[in-house]
Amino acid sequence: MQMDFSKLNGLIPAVVQDDESNEVLMVGFMNEEALDRTRSSGFATFFSRTRNKLWMKGETSGNRLKVRRLLTDCDDDTVLVRVERQGDGNVCHTGERTCFFKTLDESAQATERQVAEQAR
To answer: How does the average pLDDT of the chain come out, rounded?
Structure first.
């Protein structure tokens, strides 16, 4: 299957998800070479837009992402990378388990909690 790298200057979003827990861990970008390297090595490799080079997740920390499955969306322009975490299991460079640990709108979350509490 061929991915469509034409829409984002040669890149596709790569959503990384834990294959066992279904937790979304991170989002990176891949160019064609990063996807090829991911497929050949079995470990998630991305293209750094800031450093303008390839990097394998965990190459320095040891927290690598072993690929279990690669799925594409209906437009073939985004890849879902289902992984097994290696190392200590933390994926975010901050040391968190996932990159998605911050709430965008704290006030909306507080309002949702209040409504839920009132419904009890």
So the answer is: 92
CATH of the domain at 49: 3.10.20.810
67: CB partners within 8 A, 6+ apart: 38, 39, 42, 43, 44, 81, 82, 83
Beta strands in the chain (DSSP E): 12-18, 24-30, 45-48, 53-56, 65-72, 79-85
pLDDT tens-digit profile of 4-57?
999 999 999 999 999 999 999 999 999 999 999 999 999 999 999 999 999 999
d(CA 39, CA 69): 10
Is 87 inside any structural domain? yes
**Domain presence at residue 6:** no
Tokens 């891949």, residue located: 30
Please state the pTM of the whole predicted model: 0.84
Residue 77 lies in a domain: yes
Q: Give me the domain span that covers residue 21.
A: 12-119
